[in-house]
Amino acid sequence: METTTQQTRCLAAYLCGMDVSKFSDHTVDITKMCIEDFIGVAIAGSAKKESGIWKEYYSGKLTAPQASTFQPGFAQMTVEQAAALNAVFGHVMDMDDVHNASITHLAVITVPTAFALGQQLGKSGKEIIEAVAAGYEAGARIGEAINPSSYKYWHTTGVVGAFAAGVTAAKLLGLDEEQMVNCLGSAGTQAAGLWEFLASGSMSKVLHTANANLCGLRSAELAKLGFTGAPTILEGDRAFVNALAPEPDLDSLTKGFGESYRIEENSFKPYACCRHTHSANYCIEKILSAHALDPEEIVSITDDTYSTAVQTTNNPYPENPYAAKFSLQFCIAAAIVLKDLSDRTFTVENINNPAVRALMEKIKVKVNKELDDEFKQDPNQWSHRLTICLKNGETITEQVDYPIGDFKNPFDLEMADRKFRLLTEDMIGEEGVTKLLDRLHRLETIQDINEIFN
């Protein structure tokens, strides 16, 4: 089934053939957990500053009650408005899921489109599950084709997002193979999302995810009407993969069809910060469970890790809350001093906390060749090895290859539900949470997903 010349068409055919009736129970369950995780994170994120700006942006525009926004009251807006808002809500706290090998947040570029369009079309829970899983498959495979070599400049979630959202919409619209090819072609030419926002801690990251959903919806709906897109948008000489990746891996687009689905390799986030910090954060969690660590007794902390983590999160002097989420130094110090890496920890006050600042000065982050080679051989392994030297001469070392929430160290349903409740109970109440979780748990039995938000 693999080809060296028609990867876009080959991938389109595979995605068209994904059928929920052939999914294993595990695939259905993990897809439901991905949806649950995202909706919980989005409800919590709907109260953030960036979300408020986007709500204000849409407040003066014409709207219609077509799809629910993931916020208290679940107010309805147009499909495009709901998809964009939900993508902003779900990404603003950096607690949404991630697919390691592609370095992509996949729920935020599939679930908003699936639910907004699915509500407008009155789709069933099974159809939503199928569409989301297909969107994950597209986003992950295309992300793997460009990473890690594209990651220095390109925010993967943003640049593959139009593909993932487009495929999600295409499944719900019933596009055939030729239409799917055209959808991918239109999606790829709209791809965008640069990392420059990290330098200032600006709000662009959620703009990437909102734009991705809008581009995906547009691509699928235009394809259904007969609008054409480049049929070699992935593999062509002047196409997506070659444009973004100095070291492309086109085989990732088509290899292993039918063996398993990428959504089964998805990871969830217990900490409200960049996923490249999570193995280090879990190291600290394990160390604190075994040692009564006094920050003032620490002489130095060395974090040995892989090159992409250093490139993205070695920031000893974060100047704002968003930069702190991408700072290994802050995350490690906050985990030790404040013993909390929830969203409320990432504040200017905590960045300037004298105890946190003092400990950050003692933390060195560096590339370890062994761990970097392991990452390159297995891009699912995001290892950190922490070495803590104390004033009494004691040395504590801990290494984590797969932090809690990783698909090789996974959440169970109870943990997923606990995260959902912690994020949402203050906003929609205990009874509201219980009702919503019950409906999400039995999503595959629901005939019209509008029932979920009734």
From TrEMBL:
Matches recorded under InterPro entries: MmgE/PrpD_sf (IPR036148), MmgE/PrpD_sf_1 (IPR042183), MmgE/PrpD_sf_2 (IPR042188), MmgE_PrpD (IPR005656), MmgE_PrpD_C (IPR045337), MmgE_PrpD_N (IPR045336)
The record places domain MmgE/PrpD N-terminal at: 11-250
Q: Read off the Pfam families from this record.
A: MmgE_PrpD_C, MmgE_PrpD_N
Q: Name one GO molecular function term.
A: lyase activity
Q: Which residues form the MmgE/PrpD C-terminal domain?
A: 271-434
Similarity field: Belongs to the PrpD family.
What is the official name of this protein in its record?
Answer: 2-methylcitrate dehydratase PrpD
